Every structure is written in structure tokens, then in C-alpha cells.
Amino acid sequence: STPLYSSAASDVYKRQGKGFWQVYVAIGFSVWVDVARLVRGQIISEKEKDYVLASKILGFNNFKIIINQILPNIKGPILIIAAANFAASILLESGLSFLGIGTQPPIPSWGYMIKENYQYIVLGNAYLALIPALFLVLLVSSFLFLSNYYSNRKF
Which residues contact 94 (CB under 8 A, 6 or more apart)? Predict the structure, then answer.
């Protein structure tokens, strides 16, 4: 899935140029496919269950069945993939900023901070690059742990 992220981001970059919104729109366009595929599959799976048939027999329309019956039953997988995609999006933005095609100053980005201080690693001031890298790792790990928590929790 990483080539998809990179190609979508580079397509928006080529058309629009460097900027805050272009990067985030490109990242959003690259990760929505996983969520849409999961939600579609879960809804198709859930609509075959007995409680949906009972709701149809009671006269509820499809919109009410989806909102009141199906979505509460599929929120677990949606939360799991949302947390995992958020972590992937943070890494993608940081990677693009490190390469110089992500968000540009004055907008802060951990990838850009690592890039700007990369040369200080060999000069004895490694903390200038390692501190943003450490916080990036902690943030991404926290979203992955959150995804793991949701996957182990029964909804």
C-alpha cells in the first residue's frame, strides 16, 4: 500500500505545488480506500443477519437500519482501521516532509525537523534530530497501541 500513498501524494504535489492542504488532501485520498473497502464489506456482511431482516419487517427504511442497527455493530473494525490509518498518515506526512515534498516552513513538521538537523548527528548534537524522531515514534506507536486496544476490545 505504500506505493499507492507515494503515487497519490506525488500526483497532487505535481499538480498543485507545495503546500499544507495539498499534502493532507493527497494523504486523505490515499487512505480512504482501505476504510471504504472495510465499511462496504462489513455492511454487506451485517445486512444478511437476522436483526436486519427483523428491522425490515418492522418497517424501518434502509437509512434508519444502517444508522441505528448496522453502524453500531461495525464500529469496532472502523475504529481499528482509523487508528492504524492515522498512524500511517503521520508517517507518510513526516516522510514527505523529510524528502522535501511535504509541508514547508513555517508549518512545523517532525519530518522537516529531522531533515534540517540530520547533519548534526555526526557533529555531536544528535539530540537535535533524535528528539523529533523520538516524539514521532511515540506518537505513531500510541496510535498503533490504540488500534491494538480497539482490536482486543469487544464492542
Answer: 102, 109, 110, 111, 114, 136
Is 139 a residue whose pLDDT tops 90? Answer: yes
- Look up residue 150 and give its three cell numbers: 480497539
Task: Give me 79's grid cell.
Answer: 475504529
Model confidence band, residue 9 (pLDDT cutoffs 50, 70, 90): low
Alpha-carbon gap, residue 94 to 102, rounded angstroms: 7
DSSP readout, 59-124? T--HHHHIIIIIHHHHHHHHHHHHHHHHHHHHHHHHHHHHHTSS--TTS--HHHHHHHTGGGGTTT
Q: Quick one: pLDDT at residue 14?
A: 56
CB 102 within 8 A of CB 93: yes
Please write the tens of the pLDDT for every residue from 79-120: 889 888 999 999 999 999 999 888 888 888 899 999 999 888
Closest CA to 83 of 7, 20, 152: 152
* Cβ–Cβ under 8 Å, residues 70 and 43: yes
| Chain-centroid distance, C-alpha 32 | 8
Cα 138-143-148 angle, rounded to 5 deg: 120
Q: Give the DSSP letter of residue 101.
A: S
> What does the block give as the cell for 49?
443477519
